[in-house]
């Protein structure tokens, strides 16, 4: 039995529409993959200027679609990631002070007290550097100051004390976070210097 002409055209139109939709999705997926590859290559290439290249690539690859191949987006993202980790570390240390305050005070009265203050100052410095109107020298000044504060806070936790025995895993965890922050701010400065030059 022959298919009526009108029905035949409808079927043909439906098949063509589906094919067009699939080819459009395929093209979009291919474009997205190409864009992501370009962005990842850009991140890897940019991170070669940093001291801690593996950390740089690892922390920024997740944001490849945001960064694309834009140096400004790269630096802003690196700064935002470091700030996020700094805030998380500050919260972690603050929580420790509340839950284990008496023990920490008994075995290390000064270093642990000042760590959250230094972290708060470092975060303020990073926020000051994240300004559209800030000149290059100001950006570097504030990020450098933040790095100093992370280093200082990190040194607090490297002091040998009786807490180490009771809270060895906690001390190690905080030290690792602070060392990571010091490395991340170093990377931010390297990335900024590379593109400023």
Describe this protein's structure.
By secondary structure, the protein is an all-alpha fold. It contains 9 helices and no strands. The N and C termini lie far apart (76 Å). The longest helix is centred in the N-terminal third of the chain and has 43 residues, at 5-47. Helix 4 packs antiparallel against helix 6 (111-129) and helix 7 (136-156) runs antiparallel to helix 9 (168-196). It has a domain at 70-196: Up-down Bundle (Butyryl-CoA Dehydrogenase, subunit A, domain 3).
Topology:
Layout: H1 5-47, H2 53-61, H3 64-67, H4 71-99, H5 101-107, H6 111-129, H7 136-156, H8 163-166, H9 168-196
Tell me the distance between the termini.
Answer: 76 Å
Q: How would the global form be characterised? A: globular
Element pattern in H and E: HHHHHHHHH
Report the average pLDDT across residues. 76
Can you tell me the CATH superfamily of one domain? Invertase/pectin methylesterase inhibitor family protein
Protein name: Pectinesterase inhibitor domain-containing protein
Organism: Eruca vesicaria subsp. sativa (Garden rocket)
Family: Belongs to the PMEI family.
Keywords: Signal
């Amino acid at each position: 039995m022959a298919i009526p002409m009108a029905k035949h055209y409808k079927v043909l139109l439906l098949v063509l529409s589906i094919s067009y939709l699939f080819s459009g999705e395929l093209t979009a997926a291919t474009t997205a993959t190409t864009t992501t590859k370009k962005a990842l290559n850009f991140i890897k290439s940019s991170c070669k200027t940093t001291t801690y290249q593996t950390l740089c690539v690892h922390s920024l690859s997740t944001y490849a679609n945001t960064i694309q191949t834009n140096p400004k987006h790269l630096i802003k993202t690196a700064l935002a990631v470091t700030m996020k980790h700094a805030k998380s570390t500050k919260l972690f240390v603050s929580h420790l002070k509340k839950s284990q305050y008496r023990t920490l005070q008994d075995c290390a009265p000064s270093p642990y007290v000042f760590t959250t203050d230094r972290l708060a100052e470092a975060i303020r410095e990073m926020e000051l550097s994240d300004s559209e109107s800030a000149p290059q020298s100001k950006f570097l000044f504030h990020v450098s100051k933040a790095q100093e504060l992370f280093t200082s806070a990190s040194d607090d936790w490297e002091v040998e004390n009786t807490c180490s025995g009771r809270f060895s895993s906690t001390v190690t965890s905080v030290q690792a976070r602070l060392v990571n922050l010091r490395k991340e701010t170093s990377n931010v400065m390297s990335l900024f210097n590379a593109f400023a030059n």
